[in-house]
Structure formats: structure tokens, C-alpha cells
Specification:
Length: about 160
């Protein structure tokens, strides 16, 4: 009788684990986001974006990218691209191990203790949409990915004259 009870418990745990695995598999494996100090800036003020990526699976994964892994695109209220930061990429292949459910912030080349921050200014007042993008691959041919973050809206106001 005890053996049947143990087998039932094992079966229930196995089914629950499989259901959880398939439920997690439906959401995207990676989530990209960004941190900004605030959402209101003055014309010409430096805007700093600190991008990150999260591995949503239960095992670590290694990704490969050029430097930098992240870039941001800025759009005006009419959805016209105003700028992309950075404007160039270095063809230096880097690997990054993403641990499950932990934000990964890219480090600056040759400064492993300094987190990459993308900086730019906007010279016209208005509402702008910032979209952070991670560009990487999983080490297999044809596996290049572009993962887009949810847009962050900011307001740029005229500065004091």
C-alpha cells in the first residue's frame, strides 16, 4: 500500500513539473528592459539608459554578441526614428552567461566593474519613445536574435532661458 502512495505522489509531482515547464515555455525566453533615472528631462540634458536582459528559463544560457550587446532607438511622437545609440558597433565577439531570472547588465570593454550606460541628448521639446534592443546569437548559425523591450515614454521640456 505504501508503494502505491509513493508512486502516486511521484506521478503528481512529475505531471505538475511538466505542466510548469510547458507553461514557462510559452513565455519568451528572454526579456529586455532598461532603467532610466526619471521620465522628464530638459532640452539638451543628458539622458542615461541602463539596459538589461533577463533569461526566463530555469537553466543558465550563454549568448554571444558584438560590443555592445544593447542599443537604444529613440522615436518622436509621430513614431519617426530620431536617433540610435550607439551609432557603431565593434566587431569584438563577447560571451555572456545569463543566469535564470537575474538581470544581466553589460560591462564596459576593459572595465569589468563598470556597467554600460547609453547616453544621449535631445534638442527638441516633445514626447519621445525609447526602445532598448539586445542583439545576440546563441552560438548556432542562423540563430541571430533581436529582442525588443517594451517602450519607455519620456517628456523633454524647454530648459530655463
Amino acid at each position: 500500500m505504501r508503494l502505491w502512495t509513493i508512486l502516486r505522489i511521484v506521478a503528481v509531482v512529475a505531471v505538475a513539473g511538466a505542466l510548469m515547464y510547458f507553461a514557462l515555455a510559452k513565455e519568451p525566453q528572454f526579456k529586455v528592459g532598461a532603467e532610466l533615472p526619471r521620465t522628464h528631462f530638459e532640452v539638451g540634458e543628458r539622458i542615461s539608459v541602463k539596459p538589461y536582459i533577463i533569461n526566463r528559463r530555469i537553466l543558465p544560457v550563454t549568448i554571444f554578441s558584438c560590443f555592445p550587446l544593447f542599443f537604444v532607438r529613440v522615436y518622436d511622437a509621430e513614431n519617426r526614428e530620431v536617433l540610435q545609440e550607439p551609432e557603431i558597433f565593434l566587431l569584438i565577439l563577447r560571451s555572456h552567461t545569463l543566469w535564470p531570472h537575474i538581470r544581466y547588465y553589460e560591462t564596459v570593454l576593459l572595465k569589468k566593474d563598470e556597467t554600460l550606460t547609453l547616453n544621449f541628448t535631445l534638442e527638441q521639446p516633445g514626447r519621445y519613445k525609447i526602445v532598448t534592443v539586445a542583439r545576440f546569437d546563441l552560438g548556432r548559425p542562423g540563430q541571430g536574435l533581436h529582442i525588443y523591450a517594451e517602450p519607455i515614454w519620456i517628456e523633454v521640456i524647454p530648459g530655463p532661458n
